[in-house]
Amino acid sequence: MNKVFLIGRLTRDPELRYTGSNIPTATFSIAVNRNFTNQAGEREADFINIIVWRKQAENCKNYLTKGSQVAIEGRIQTRNYDGQDGKKVYVTEVVADNVEFLGSRNSSGNSNNMNGSADYNAGPSPYDFGGAPEPKGTDVDSNPFADFGASIEISDDELPF
């Protein structure tokens, strides 16, 4: 199985190109923080190349910029070609099946899933852990049904099982 899930920030604006048969493709790289610190106590990051195809590629070009946070779902691909000096060049990249926009560096926490058919005002992402408002109505001492009138009694004898 070849499946990859990444969350990171773009290190540069996406580059959009078209194949000979006019299929859009975008490339960019993301910085993904490691879960641990190095010996100096600093957190390091890996820089991963991403390639996106078709409508998602156009959406990435139109809506993402350097610093935007994204969640990537896809697969790892390796390929090679002969470089200008005649040596083989090997490339490892992630081919994205799904790109979820988690927000820009200065965003208010709204995210959008831009796979070509998504609602562009989808609201906060489950991956956005910063700046989310506290949920309302979580006071366990208050009765959430107080405004609905008379109480309803249900006994165990009335249950069908």
Description:
This protein has 1 helix and 7 strands, in the order ββββαβββ. Residues 108-137 have low confidence and may be disordered. It has 161 residues and is mostly beta strands.
Secondary structure blueprint with pairings:
Elements: E1 4-10, E2 15-18, E3 24-37, E4 43-53, H1 54-63, E5 69-82, E6 88-103, E7 112-113
Parallel strand pairs: 4-6
Antiparallel strand pairs: 1-3, 1-5, 2-3, 3-4, 5-6, 6-7
Would you kindly provide a brief summary of this structure?
With 161 residues, the chain is mainly β. It is built from 1 helix and 7 strands; from the N terminus they run ββββαβββ. It has one domain (4-131): Beta Barrel (OB fold (Dihydrolipoamide Acetyltransferase, E2P)).
Q: Which sequence of SSEs, written as H and E, runs from N to C?
A: EEEEHEEE
CATH top level is Mainly Beta
CATH topology: OB fold (Dihydrolipoamide Acetyltransferase, E2P)
- Looking at CATH, the homologous superfamily is Nucleic acid-binding proteins
Assembly form of the protein: single chain
